[in-house]
Design a protein that fits this description.
By secondary structure, this protein is of the alpha+beta class. The protein has a single domain (3-137), classed as Roll (Nuclear Transport Factor 2, Chain: A). It contains 3 helices and 5 strands. The protein has helices at residues 3-20, 25-30, 49-62; strands spanning 31-37, 63-76, 79-90, 114-126, 129-137. A hairpin with a 2-residue loop joins strand 4 (114-126) and strand 5. The longest helix has 18 residues, at 3-20. The radius of gyration is 15 Å and the shape is globular. It starts with a helix and ends in an 18-residue tail after the last strand.
Amino acid sequence: MSRTDDNKQAYRRFVEEVFNKGNIDAVDEMVSPDYVDHELFADEIPQNREGLKKGVLMCRDCLAELSVSIQNVSAEGDKIIARTTWHGVQGAANGQGFDAGDPAAARDLRAGEAVEFDTLDIARYEDGMVVEHWGLTDDGPGWPTAYYLPQRAGS
């Protein structure tokens, strides 16, 4: 296999193991200790490997029945670009939700409602590990509301 094919396969494995199966230990196997995330998920989450783990756990806790489907993945050089569709049920899988200690978190909750939204990811690989990530999320009507996922800067 070529390096670009290896990187696409590594991305597919990451999505399956980490997001779909919830195997947080796999992050240490697939993501460099020097990882930098250029997508600001939430102000309180560091943009490093530990922050990635925290973000994954928050997503899995806040979206019951989480399933991420890869629609397209392409690669050139050391980067992949992928479009994914996320499916889940809004409301916490743990039954508690995420409110970041904010009493206003109760506004506009649609607990139990199915959600679907798309993302676009670019990831750079070195030696089979992700070292950088850039991402965009279509946070239109399907994006989980209020604090089931934390508000992002500028929201």
